[in-house]
Write a structure and sequence with these properties.
- This protein is 24% helix and 30% strand.
- The protein has 411 residues and is α/β, with parallel strands linked by helices.
- α5 links the parallel β11 and β12.
- α1 packs parallel to α6.
- It is globular, with a radius of gyration of 23 Å.
Length: 411
């Protein structure tokens, strides 16, 4: 009964297993995966993998031998079917597993659009490597691609498709890209960059139905204004939903669309943890509860939970950070957007390398850097420290960002 059973071989699940061994956990670890592939990095799926720049072996989170060498019982193609919290057991197709500690790392599922014609071939979502295989195969003969959703997945795939010479139209329901994630100035820059590369955008566009060929393939996307866009491939990239299918009998508290957890990843039930996309927690950098869908958050949560399971104490407190690669742009984000902030521009967007700093008074709360990795790293430190900065110096692109703290600290 002292074994840790981890449901989901995601970034969070694999990191939790690895960190448990690093922290000296000597008991059993069972890692259940619903997929038949060894656990893999997900961010390259929309970019390097589909572009053929990375093969599947290069995507692996850990070499296959790692799990055996670390005594981690990785079970591929063995999803959890149900959980019995009273018996402290996880039920799979092969039987029942006793657990001492249970870790839920089930991730999220791609949202779909139940439009007329949605059963047509050639309509894709992108969440798993199986999805990416199908998408990469379909792209070979595709000429006209419509992407529904101007989020990170949609834009990353758009850049990959444009580089392959495809005709690409991105449909975005809002009046600009990434409304909740990015400042307006950065949204406009990214949209303009895509447009200059050949992608086309339709803002405020709502798809109503898919048109299809006689043999059941998608042929177009019809919009609410009656326009039909030709499409022999459609990617639906409208976000994800936490995979909560297993939690009902557990009677766990939920909040903000996920399982409520504390700073260690512990749920409202003793000995049950939730990590990654499925977990919601009070985030000091957001002043509220939220689910945070990012690889780094999943990894940080997993490390904190493993420390707690192993008897230590390392509550989650890392500054949230994210990244996206599109064409030759590396966009890195630190902190979380807040209302009521002022913006400080560091550098010139025309140069293709700049940062936007969001300030509360003289304190940095969020930063968005384009091809400015040093700014990103400094921003993470400044946000975590909560120190005042000299805004005049921070706006000077020739002054290292950390220098603004040193001056402000003694003034």
């Amino acid at each position: 009964m002292s074994a840790v059973v981890i449901v989901g071989a995601s970034h969070a699940g694999v990191q939790a297993a690895a960190s448990l061994r690093q922290k000296g956990w000597q008991e059993g670890i069972v890692l259940l995966s619903a997929e038949g592939d060894y656990p893999y990095h997900r961010p390259p799926l929309s970019k390097a993998y589909i572009a053929g720049e990375k093969d599947e072996e290069q995507l692996l989170l850990r070499a296959p031998d790692f799990y055996r060498d670390q005594g981690i019982d990785l079970r591929l193609n063995e999803p959890a079917l149900s959980i019995d919290p009273h018996a402290r057991q996880v039920v799979t197709a092969s039987g029942r597993l006793d657990y001492g500690k249970l870790v839920l790392a089930t991730g999220s599922k791609a949202r779909t659009l139940p439009l007329p014609g949605a059963e047509a071939r050639g309509i894709h979502t992108l969440r798993s490597i199986a999805d990416a295989r199908h998408l990469r195969s379909s792209m070979q003969d595709a000429e006209n691609i419509v992407i529904i959703g101007g989020g990170f997945i949609g834009l990353e795939f758009a850049s990959t498709a444009v580089k392959q010479g495809k005709s690409v139209v991105v449909l975005e329901a809002q009046e600009r890209l990434l409304t909740r994630a990015l400042p307006e100035r950065l949204s406009a820059f990214i949209g303009g960059y895509h447009t200059a590369k050949g992608a086309m955008f339709r803002y405020g566009a709502l798809p109503e139905r898919y048109t299809t060929t006689d043999d059941g393939r998608v042929s177009g996307v019809q919009l609410g204004d009656g326009t039909t866009l030709p499409a022999d491939l459609v990617l639906v990239g409208v976000g994800g939903i936490a995979d909560m299918a297993l939690i009902e009998p557990l009677e766990l508290k939920t909040i903000a669309g996920g399982i409520e957890v504390d700073a260690h990843g512990l749920t409202s039930a003793p000995d049950i943890y939730a990590l990654g996309d499925v977990a919601a927690f009070h985030n000091a950098y957001a002043n509220g509860a939220m689910r945070l869908e990012s690889v780094q958050n999943a990894v940080d949560q997993a490390k904190s939970a493993a420390e707690h399971i192993a008897g230590g104490n390392a509550p989650l407190g890392a500054v949230p950070w994210f990244w996206t690669d599109q064409y030759d742009l590396k966009v890195q984000m630190a902190g979380l957007p807040r209302s009521g902030t002022t913006e400080l521009l560091r550098g010139d967007p025309e140069s293709g390398a700049f940062s936007i700093l969001q300030m509360e008074g003289d304190r940095l709360v969020a930063a968005y850097s384009v091809n400015r990795a040093a700014d990103h790293m400094a921003s993470r430190k400044l946000i975590a420290a909560g120190q005042s900065i000299d805004q005049r110096m921070a706006a000077d692109i020739d002054t290292p960002l950390m220098k603004a703290v040193a001056v402000a600290a003694v003034s």
